[in-house]
Amino acid sequence: MAASVRKTRQETGAQLAHRHVFGFKSGVKGNVHFTDDAHLLYPAGHNTILYHADHKSQIRVFPGSEGSEGISSLALSPNRKFLAVCEKFQERAVCYVYDVTTGKRRRGQLTYGECDAREYVCAAFSAENKLLITQGGPPDWTLILWSWDKAKAHGAVKVSNLTGSMIHECSFNPQDSSLVCIIGDGVFKFFRLQDGTFKGIPNQLNKMREASNQNYICHTWLNDDRLIVCSEAGDALLFDSGGEFKMVLPCSPCEPRSLLCVASFSRGFIAGGEKGVVTFYERSDDAKETSLLRGARVKLDSSMSGPMMPSVGAVTAMTVSPAEETVAIATGSNQLLTFSLSPTDIMKAEEGNVDFALTSFHTGPIFGLDVCVRKPLVVTCGTDKTVRIWNFVDRTQELCKVFNEEAFSVAFHPSGFHLIVGFADKVRLMNLLMEDFRTYKEIPIKACRETRFSHGGQFFAAVNSNTIQVYKTYTCEVVCNLRGHQSKVKAVCWTSDDFRLVSCGQDGAAYEYDILKEGRRVSEARPGTGTAREWSQKGTNFASIVSHTDFEAATPATTLYVAGSDKMLKEVRESSLTNYLESNAVLGQLALAPCTQALIAGVAEQELPGSLRCYTFPLTGDYVEYQAHAAPVSRIRITWDEFRGRRSGGSAETRPLYLFSTGDDGCLCIFDIKKNGPPRKDKDFGLGYADEILVTRQFLDEKQATLLEFERRVEELDSRIAFQLRHRDGLHKEKMAEMQEKYSEEIETERRKFEVLREEKAEMEMENEEHVKTLEENHARYLQEQQESFDQKMIVEDQRYKKLEADLEREKQEWDAQHSALLAEHAQVIEQMKQDAEKIQRANRETMDRDIKEKEMAFKQHQETLAQLEQDADREIEELKEMYEQKLTQEKDDKVRLRGQAGIHQKYHHDLAGDMMEMEKDVKDKAEESRKAEERILALMKDKDSNEKEIKERDKTIADKEQRIFDLKKQPPGRNEAQIDPKTADIASMKTQTRAMEDELNDYKLVEQPALVALRIGLRIGWWCKALQISQLQMKQRALQEEGALSTAILAELGKKQKLREDLALIKRFKLDLSDCLETISEPKALKESVTALYRTRHAGYVVDPEKYVQGGAKRQDLDTDMQKEYNRQRDYLEKSVDSLKRKLEKDSQAHRIDNMRIMQENVSLIREINDLRREINALKHERQAQDDRTSTCEQPRWGAGVGVASRRGGCGIQLVWLVPSIPGPPCGSTGWSHHNQVARSFGATYRKRGGLCT
């Protein structure tokens, strides 16, 4: 086992140098700054980039710190020379300061020991660039003041409110560095810096908006030293330089999250919000107007030029260039845009004047990455449903296409003409055209997350869950299906000769497959050698695998390098673990560059930046870590290695090596791989990058047609421009002649004016010389006079000074004498005051002694009085206790008596409820029996109706047959004889069937008809019995209700009698108390006490009504009332139970009625079907009967038998329907008439004569 050891860059086999980073990190505060008009600072991955906009290159990279959890905020000094980078750490936040010009980090790191925050959410420099403030994050939200050049903290203060609300931004006043502004969620504060400490300044906004608790998101200082603060609700607040609130701008949008970031410029400020909306606010031209007006409103999604791209999202940061020519805009979808600030471009914002600062980037994690061999191209795909082609030599984006679904994997053909993209439902093979991707084959593999072309491009492998499918590139034929993994395959890799394929998966296994031997594993392909090419480790999820074949060795052998979730890098050879390194971090991806003796590994720890480790190859444990991504590394690729293109005795390509890495932060990082030591002296037989492109014939034809059209337009424009030039030359010559003549005249006029002015100038010079000479003479004379006057004044002032000096000396002597007298007088006064104070002190001491003695005497008297009062109170308490105990005993007796009465009444109510429930049950049973009887009656009535209808149809059929017989009788006898003989057998069989049907009909008449009559009679008797039982139950219910009303009246009468007894007792007690009062009528004082006692006794009861003198009756009345309420409650419950049962009975009856209707409808449909069948039988039998009649030799008609069809259905089970076809009957004699009439009555029909025949 070899432990991982970090070395310097010179000690490892290769070095990585940042070449370019395609991406942007939007979750950083202050993530875009202009250092000058051409240089732009922004974060990308775990780095800060200095980008040159004119050269389209990244001239400097400020990498993040090792061990950091990511960059949290950026700040640029006002002189644009220093950059503060705040990073998040596990223990506490750290801030570093860089020199933008040199790229060096200043000595010392800014970290505050008393701050528990793990990150700084915001930072800002002072106007003189010497001070820096950093705003700590949760939990304490501490604002820290730094002298950053000395790495020294001057002071700190906790700025959040009591609830620990979030702080969003902090800043210095650009004109007064001692004033600091803090804004956050419900927090808006100003601080004054005094001696390195923060002093809070009260502001009017806290009082005005404390109730609404606004969330202040962003702010900016305008050029006129005023402050703009924006809230989440869409209000823009205006403050003066001292923090005094002025107004809410009338131009505020007042839309939620419409002001997420602001940036000031000379004409006003710019605000960005949700959905990519940027609004310009400019000053009014009116000098009296102090407010701002809303100008142009730009929607970035509709204003961007170029192909359709995903939505840019919300605007998170903006900055204006020093010359105010360009504004840079950062969006929530990791895009960096630029927009011109010229008034013309602002007015034309909707015409597509918004451009990408570099190019468009991925807006989410990147899933797939691959590099081309013959072209300087690399392809990526991610969650934003885009596939992008990047040129790593020109540092540009060649092509971007948006699909309708996410692409999970991508592979680039070595030629650069073909792509493989894995989608959710299929894998698509595409041709890379000049301006588009065109699909030419789709393979049904779902959610393919790994696909690789072979190094020669003749094969490609696609992962289908735990199976690897290998295809031929140009025919898409399946070469083999590689199986063996028990779980999903995570990575595949081709060996350098393309004969074998290695793979690893979530099952912790690594396999080597031989493609030339139908995809069998190497151990299976060579069973006799015993050298298996497979290795597994249970419980480990392998994420990446690479292979290396040493062709210079005597026996080339393949070595596998795998990394997974066990935080180890393993080297496997001949199916055995030969070496492993502890990485102390999860390694997600591996890439091998043998020529530079380097193995690159990407760190894939969740919630941590994804760095790249460059291990020395062969593995010794030494590595160097490079900062790359802000999230775990998802893919790593290296361009074609010169070592892989060489065999023993051959030569290699000398093409430079590049390393590409992508991460979940949406960034594509490109590094140069440089080998330490002297370069190889190999001959350069390599080829440069190809510049061929793949286009379609249609594209070429369109371009040719467009080119011819442009040539024709150019010829037309040349001729038109030549004509216009000739025409303009003529016009210009004419104008030149006119202007030359005009200017000649004007020049002559001006020359004459010049001569006149020169003469006037000479005259004025002579006058000025004379005037100056006169002024000099006057000035000399005035100066001499002033000198003489000053000398005279000085003599007078000197004499005055001497006099004042003598007066001062005399007054000083007088003051000394007065001072001595005052001191003596003051000493006498002090002595007198001391004597008076001593006298007053003695008098006060005597008074105090006297007061103490009086206090002690009063205290003794108070104690005696208190003891006497306590004895009196105890005696009164004992008396009251005895009285109330008597009352309590009486109340308990009354309670026991009333509880017994309540139990009796409750038992009576329970009995009544049981009887009522039994009666309801009987009513329900009777109703159910009644319902069944009704259903049976309805079924029988339905049978009766159907039978009557059938009889009518039979009558009609008989009439038709009689008419047919009559017609046959009229025909000649010989005409039908030829038809009679063939039908004799059929007629005999039909006659037998007719007799059987007639016998069955007679049996029914004798058996079923009496049963039907008896059933009807039984149903009527049952219905009458049910009605009688229902009436009896209703009478019982009325009797119970009358009995309940009677019991209620009895209870009311008992209550009245009890109340009367209590009133009589009240009157008796009142008379006794009143007589006691009358005994003291002769003594006024005693009478007063008796009346007072009577009043107290009266109001000591439970009722304060002045007309009732009762001490316990109210309680008994309350008990009677409670009993009555309980009775009423029980009665209401029973009534509600009866109502609910009635509703349930009605609901059940309705349901049974619906079932009966449904059954009746089914019966009707069955009857219709039976009638249709009957008609068909009638038609056949009509023909048969006609033939039978023609062959009959007897004139008398004979009996025919009926046909019976039974169908039994209904609610109680069965319904009967009889079908009796019409048949000719016997002659209409007396016997025949009575017989037919009896049969017809048995079916509920009548018998009549028609046409001489009985029907």
TrEMBL record:
Keyword Coiled coil on this protein?
Answer: yes
Q: Which residues form a coiled coil?
A: 700-950, 1124-1190
Q: Name one Pfam family in it.
A: WD40
Q: Which InterPro entries match?
A: CFA-57, Quinoprotein_ADH-like_sf, WD40/YVTN_repeat-like_dom_sf, WD40_rpt
Q: Where are the WD repeats?
A: 359-391, 482-515
The UniProt record lists the keyword Coiled coil: yes
Q: Which UniProt keywords apply?
A: Coiled coil, WD repeat
The name of this protein is Cilia- and flagella-associated protein 57
